[in-house]
Amino acid sequence: IACTKSYVAIPKVRVAAGGVLRAKVSRACFRDPRPAHRPAASRFSPQSSQQSSGAGADVRTNTATVPLKLRKSKEPDEVWNKTVQEDWDKAFVSIPGEYEYWIDQIDGEIPKDLVGTVFRNGPGNFERGGTRYKHVLDGDGMICRISIDGERGQAHFCNKFVRTEEFCAEEKEERVMYRNTFGTQPEGVLNNAFNVSLKNNANTNAQMWGGKLLALWEASVPHRINPYTLDTSTETLGGVAKKGSVSVVTGNEAVDEMLGFGNAMTAHPHVDPVRNRFVGWTWVAARGGADVQMSIHEWDDKWNRLSSTPYTLVDAKLAPHDFA
Fold first, then answer.
1. Of 23, 72, 161, 228, which has the fewest beta carbons less than 10 angstroms from its beta carbon?
2. Contact at 8 Å (CB) between 18 and 133?
3. What is the DSSP string of 44-69?
4. pTM for this one?
5. Using CA atoms in the order 152, 155, 160, 161, what is the torsion angle rounded to 10 degrees?
């Protein structure tokens, strides 16, 4: 059983059989076979809601009234204090390499019926050639795999960077060569004057469907990850995803091709378990960035594309992040 989640990699993993990690893995990998309880009426019922006046407010449910207590916000220095800053800095530390090992620190026993693999993706490198990235979300994507075999009482960890074309080029040159979404860019005016290529960090999500494991980033195309070796390859999803320097259209297909423009796929596709379909969308910025042109796609579990529906978000400015 395989499942996927976003993840910030760590070089050493400890499994607590009776603790938090076990709870997270079991919830991510396994579904309760019993049907979910669905109440007859919504917990928040329009018929039972009421508007109150005064300093406080009430939220009325069909069973009880819950008062909402208004509290004064803390001062900025109280929230962004030294302890919080130190904790945040821990998530902004580059992982020094790629690892593969059996997890030998296990507290308690792994349940025998807990058998499965979790794939997670997140930023794992935050510097190149001595240049610190400007934002944590400009970090290079890293895929982590945690495999648990409760029958044998064993767990195994492996991680690798998502080796996109941009990652490999920057690793070879040991310098920042591409623009990033959150401010990281090459140094010097000449290196930026005509550089419109946006780096695909492949660091946002990992999704398994129909035998394919995808590393996703919402401003470009996905990458395919070998679930056994964690090696990276390109993926177009049957031509739906088109790699380019940026996700833009001018309205003239010949001009778009000459300029090397492409499209992007959402980093958050979803599985429709009722119809057994994989649903996501590709998008481009149009009309000078005023509109977003989307194509909503559906695939079956053999990756046959069942439908593609065009849709334009007029005056959207920004592409959607997620959907339900």
1. 72
2. no
3. S-GGG-----SS-EEEE-SS-EEEEP
4. 0.75
5. 140
